[in-house]
Amino acid sequence: MKGYIKLENGSLLEGEIGDTKNPEAEGEAVFFTGMTGYQEVLSDPSYKNQILIFTYPLIGNYGINHADFESKRPQVKGAVFYECCEHFSHYEAVHSVKAYLQKWGIPFLHHVDTRSLIKKIRSSGTMNAKLTACANTAVPPISLPSHDGGEKTVHGSGSKHTVLVDFGLKKSILNSLISRHQKVTVLPYEQMGDIFSLNPDGVVLSNGPGNPKQLREYLPLIKKITQTFPVLGICLGHQLLALTHGYETEKLLFGHRGANHPVLDRQTGKVYMTSQNHSYVVKKGKGDLSIRFENVNDGSVEGLCHPDKRLLSVQFHPEASPGPRESEWIFDEYTSMLTQTGRVAHYA
Ligand SMILES: NC(=O)CC[C@H](N)C(=O)O
């Protein structure tokens, strides 16, 4: 059955509705440029409530397996493909992408001219959109997504204890810490105040959906946490640390979403290919941390650090999933921050 994606600026592109039971979705339209990694991306909570457009024209050829989910369910509001392959082939595959989206009632559109769609978004910027069976429809205003809840859980074992604050975390961040022999307490962000009684060796602030400024009320608490424990911030976590330290954030025209974003580590002069997924970015300017990482393509801020090595933040995803693993050492650097003795007194 014929269907459409309608953009907020009135553009209309035709395709085929993937699941006629669920033809309609409204959300912010963003695009992902990776050739693979669709399973991780569809289940990444940072994409919550967004309509995700895949730029690579063939998605689904290695199916969906049991291992590569980043959370328990698809998080996107809808998906758009050029071709969403029904006949998958991989020894671990258990479903097709279509079957996965249908199982969870996630609307999707295929056989769309994604190339022209993405050109529109690249020139006019990220905007709201609607997947629909009806060409004559309006795109309503859409409220920003935020992560709701989650529960406190404890994982792994080891002499070092990390509290991983869950703003909508990817499973791979948790796994990256567990594999470095840490005991990890996952704490929903609403319970962040409990960190002081848990008294961990360090704190990781996770990725998550939405605008970091929606979480403004937590900034004083985050400041106190950075004054007490070594902290690593990843993506949304990085943006929150930046706001806490006097920086501003702004929205990029069309975001960075893909698996080949080059980032320069100013400390070593090395460039790493990184996995990214963000709309917002930290503005250069006033702030009391050092800019350690920089995007090679557009010069945007990719990470901050404090000179006493008790705070590190990255806009990119060192856990990859999907994407290159060459910046995984960020977790090693965080782990070495935990072995420094004594609590932080760097602003005291
Ligand atoms: N991956 C993330 O944590 C995304 C952070 C934030 N929601 C953004 O879009 O910029």
UniProtKB/TrEMBL annotation:
Q: Which organism is it from?
A: Metabacillus mangrovi
Q: Where is the signal peptide?
A: none
HAMAP family listed in its UniProt record: CPSase_S_chain
Q: What is this protein called?
A: Carbamoyl phosphate synthase small chain
The cross-references to InterPro entries, in alphabetical order and at most eight, read: Anth_synth/Amidotransfase, CarbamoylP_synth_ssu, CarbamoylP_synth_ssu_N, CarbP_synth_ssu_N_sf, Class_I_gatase-like, CPSase_GATase1, GATASE
Q: What are the record keywords, sorted?
A: Amino-acid biosynthesis, Arginine biosynthesis, ATP-binding, Glutamine amidotransferase, Ligase, Nucleotide-binding, Pyrimidine biosynthesis
Name the residues annotated as catalytic in the UniProt entry: C235, H317, E319
Q: Which GO terms describe its biological process?
A: 'de novo' pyrimidine nucleobase biosynthetic process; 'de novo' UMP biosynthetic process; glutamine metabolic process; L-arginine biosynthetic process
